[in-house]
Amino acid sequence: MNNAQENKKRKVQRSPGYPMLSLEEAIQKIKILWEKDRNKTIPIEAAYSHLGYKTMGGYASRVIAAMKKFGLIYEKQNDIILTDEAVDLALHEPSDATYIETVGKLALRPTIYEKLFNEYNGNLPSDATLKVKLIKEYEFNPDKVNGFLSDFRKTIEFAKLNEIGFPIQEKISTEEQNMNLQTRGTMKTAIPALSVAATASAERVIATYTIGRGLTARILISGEQPTTIESIEKLLNRMQEDKEIMIESVANEKDESAKN
Question: Fewest Cβ atoms nearer than 10 Å: which of 33, 137, 167, 186?
Answer without folding.
Answer: 186
